[in-house]
Amino acid sequence: MVEMTPPSSDVAEVASSIGTGSLPWPVSKVMSALPLAPLQFASNRVLQTALGRRPGLFSRLAEYSGKRFAIDPIDCPFVFLLEPRVEKPTLRVHATLDGVTWDARISAVMLVLLGLLDGTYDGDALFFSRDLLIEGDTAAVLALRNAIEDAELDPALLLGAPQFVTPVLSGNIRRAADVMRRLLGAPASASARGDRFA
Amino acid sequence: MKLTLGPVLFNWPTPMWVDFYARIADEAPVDRVVIGEVVCSKRSPFRTNAVVDVIERLERAGKEVVLAALALPTLKREVAEVADLVGSGRLIEINDMTALAAVAGSPYIVGPLVNVYNEEALAELESLGATTITLPPELPQASIEILGAGKSTADLEVFAFGRAPLAISARCYHARAHGLAKDGCKYVCEHDLDGLHVETLDGQSFLAVNGVQTLASGLTVLGQEIPELETAGVLRLRLSPHTCDMVAVTNAYRDAVDGRLPPAELVARIKALELPAAIVNGYFHASPGAAFVG
Amino acid sequence: MELVCPAGTPSALRTVVDAGADAVYCGFRDETNARNFPGLNFTAQELVQGVAYAHDRGTKVLVAINTFARAGGTELWHRAVAQAVESGADAVILADLGLLGWASRAYPAQRLHLSVQAAASTPSAIRFYAERYGVKRVVLPRVLTVEEIAAIVSAIPCETEVFAFGGLCVMTEGRCLLSSYATGESPNMNGVCSPAAHVDYRQEGTALAARLGGFTIDRYPAGQPAAYPTLCKGTFKVDGKAAHIFEEPTSLNALAILPQLKAAGVSALKIEGRQRGKAYLAAVVRQFRTALDALDAGQAMPASALIALTEGGRETTGSYKKTWR
User: Fold this and answer.
1) Range of the domain at A24
2) ipTM of the shown complex
């Protein structure tokens, strides 16, 4: 039985330790005024696209596929709840985690979470540097991370772009994201550093 | 069941070490006594002169004496010492593969620091001459039963009393804790006769440091488990020396294995002694080693 | 020197092969290997595909079956060796005496490596494995100095492999029960150290507390680097004083001493980290590929740019220098 930490009450404190690379506050402010429905629609699309391209995406989760993962972009006014069940996995958008039960919670700024998804970042390194916070069922988080690592989720793939354009499109999106990360002071990605020696 | 007194793992001052074995020779009802330095080769020179007398006294008292080899020889000198032990013509307890390579082919006994987890490793060590095999402390009952049920020719021994040895390293944590280098350690480990107490940031007793060795803080006492060990085919129990009254400990175990003392009362008798730590028995019950399963 | 790189998933295998690994090591998705982590490792079919990918690009595949077989359950370990052999793996990496005996009899032609978990630290111990089981390469424990390694190399009939980068065991590998003392699960029996299922991270005020099996391993103040919840890197109290009594959270980085390791006669360098992500693998493998190529060309070692990937943001040459002890 996993013990739960009280959700969300300490977001301000968390943000102070892991907030590097936060989106500028006007962006967050504007986002908080927007309805969640379009985001929910987009999230469904991304999940369905990813599952379409990578049908075995969550198979590595094995006994952890029934877990509920709260994915919390701390610089955004919403949280994701991922249920990677074998039958009908879901990705729901919530305004807060109040009243939402979860087994594991993964918190970081949005740009870092996106970088984890496409393999820009090494999860362990982000955890060491405290840019990523893990709470709850650590084993489930590890299983999810390894499933995503193996899936090679390119940005263009997630957007559902046709396969022949994905390498170029993904490269462009990655470069744009790198620029944003630099501008916002997000942690440097490992592969960007490695490139200097390629 | 027979009783083995394991080697003193700690850096006891030589007079204390000599007195301890004199009392064991005279009063402790154990069948076998393993002596020698297992943890740190820097400690043994102090006892060189005393060892011969200690062995003689133990043998005069009818104990079988076994010489323990070092757990982690790396220096040339240490490897040579292991070879010398084998040349002594006595029965040797191996505690790593360097010693195994040296004894292979003649009779020897296996200490608790050698990885024997399954029937095939057991058979391999037997085919190389092992006559007693002490199982790793973390082995659960189910594994002990399977190993005991096999056609093993060697006696199986189980670590039944003492702080279980958990790890060995090239680095000396005693020296490190005192801000000293290993080479200039000033033998600080001789001040902690049962090991240096390590607790968590929240004050939980956790480990005990003994030079390059790390031990459990909890004191393993397999007492209520003796009938199950016997059924499993375990022929020897190992009692690891501490500063508590080891004659009382060995007497209690003797009474228990000879049927004069119910196993449950053995634990009570041990508990009445002045012990260095709380009692644990988790490993046998397939639980964390730090647990006590009542 | 051969560059031996980790792969926890098929995707990681492709990453390290493409980044310049000479050999890649991996394991099956069960307790037969020492990185038995949730969601990690290969099915038999994934291994076959991985071997094909690697061999097409001239890279070797080594399969780690380096835990100690469970009494009464040795069949699982036998099957792992059989599947590795059938996949065409270039070597299997073993630690268990019983399994070494079995594998050397069942597959006399298969190349066997001795895992670091076997903790063979002296020439006589290594010769024993080489002569009795035909072991062709030994992975040396992370307890030896460069001088000691050189002495060993000159006295043994097989190749040596040493750790060059990544997680640093401060205890002799294969001889550490700290994890099972706190959690009931150990590297030797279950292929896990400080398993995630027993880890509890909790925000306590502004600090992050890490507990393993209920034991507090560390408490990181806000803004300070965190570490794996491994017991040997934790903060504990001795005589009322809190300290990293075993080792600071740190990663091994032998980049600067590659010339010395080469001079010592080491045959292969191992990168640790089957549990790490592709970002880590690509960066580390490229860095070491560049360094090894520079070494072969007689050029100076490049400066290390891997600090961001290290545990606790710190790196060490570990036991390779005697002062570490």
Assistant:
1) 11-191
2) 0.96
